[in-house]
Amino acid sequence: MEYGADQKSKLLEREEDLYARDPGALGIKRAPHLPEQKVDVREDWQDDKEKALADKLRYKLLGMKEKPIATLLLAFSLIFFFGAAVFAFFTFYRGANVVSSENVDISIIGPVSVAGGEELPLEIIVSNNNNAALQSVALEITYPEGTRSSTDLTRELIRENDLLGVIASGENIKRQIRAVLYGEEGAKKEITISLEYRVEGSSAVFFKEKKYEVVLSSAPISLAVDSLKEVNSGQPFDLSLTISSNSTITLSNVLVKAEYGFGFSFISANPQTSANDSLWKIGDLRPGEKRIIKVHGKLEGQDDEDRIIRFTIGTTNTALSKTIDVPLLSISQDITIKKPFVSFDLVLNGQLDKDVTISDGGDVRGTITIANNLPTRIIDAEVELKISGDALDKNSVMVTFGLYRAPESIISWGSRAVPDLAVINPGDKPSLTFSLEALNLSGSALRNQELTFEATVKAKRFSESRVPEEVTSTLSKKVKISSNMSLRSRVVRQNGPFTNTGPIPPVAEQATTYTILLDVTNSLNTVSNAEVVTTLPDYVHWMGQFGPSAEKISFNETTGEVLWSVGDIKAGTGFGASPRQVAFQVSFIPATSQVGTAPILIGPTTLRGTDRFTGDRLTSLVSETTAKFDSEPNFKPGDDKVR
Q1: Would 59 be classed as within a structural domain?
Q2: CA distances in angstroms from 345 to 39, 127, 349, 382, 455, listed in the order given
């Protein structure tokens, strides 16, 4: 590689600097020399190594001599520990004054099963196998629910206590107990025996417990239900419940409860129920005694639906109780609902509802429609309708193609009078009609009145063996009579509780005051939550005067609404008794534009309330009330018109 003249001169300069004698002149600094230091190095290190090996050998020899001594010390420690443990064991469990709960035994001697309602005898043996006596020994027996005293069956046994006192070492204490257990067959009952005691020289309380189980081999009562296995939907049927005592002693406070399930309607029972149509108080049941309960009701449901009716019998703790405290036995009856081969509907005033409401003195129009549910014809259908109730006007009953027997209030239709009933083919639906009126009972002493309609349809079909079968279907409906609640509004000048002023007839631009009277009457049934609402026109002013003071009346200045909170209106109010009345005063300043007119003092007035018997919401409405006070004798035509 060749360099130029300039490059060669620079290389020569660097070479001269490199070999210069005085580097400082060139700006190069040299590091200073380190100071010299003498180090004393040992030359006998090999002798130390030999000494360390000798020490190691000596320690090893000494360890071999000390090992047997350590082994002996360890063995001695183990022997001492084992001996101490054995000594503690014998001292605790075999010591002269030490008591162990393992040495306290509770033995129970008795049968493993007993009949319900029979006396259960048990023997309890408490044994003290300790070397010391047991102090302040207390025995407690806890019985299962439903246990009764063997000497007084009316007394429930919950627990018994027996103070045994001192039980010496090796002593056995015996106690006999007797009780009567109740419950369902196969039920397991558990009796708990508890023992508390102390030992001498200690304040601690020790405890021992043992449980004894006994099985009830039989119930003290047997139940049997007799009824149809299949019933037609809506057709009444009977259930018979037979109660038999298997006990050798009298059973007290016996109670029977029925659970009917969905779709069952209770009609009656013999004997009558004690509560809720499902509870019977049997009272005392002597040994071998039988009681029979008959229930009359009906089931409603779809074809082939299964329903279960259950009866439970047991005892109560007190004669006044309505709850079974000790169940003894339960039994159920399965019933299948079948659709009858003939069915019918009873329509009252166009309603298929079970209960219908009409006003006091109202009328009822009914239709009975029969349907054949078989694929074959049915024959000789007969229909009977019985109407009952004090509100029936027997002279008003009208029937088409039927026979009405007024003394019994029965309407009947037969195949002779109605050819459509002789043969009813599949799909046919012959109809029967009737009508009647209810009596106007306003002013009478009758209350909460209703009409009952009980319809029965009988028809025949031929079975597979060509033998005619008859079926009966029944249906019942009620028509409740609602109360006649009414409102009256009027204006007075002199007959009210307030003094009125101003010209009569009223004069334009001059104030005239009037008294407004509101009267409320009510006939058959009590009406609740009643109220009266009306409104004052803009040109009529509220004077703040109202009465009687016991009535609740208010005025809204913003809306002009007058509210009378009537509350309950008793049956017969205004019919043999004074009506409910309220009065308030208003002022009227007529305008010139009202000259020649009878101005409106209050707008439409509405009375609302709920009939407690029927549950219906009742309303009474009166139109506007003008300044015409024609109920007073001094009123003359034109006195209500502005001049």
Answers
A1: no
A2: 133, 80, 13, 14, 9
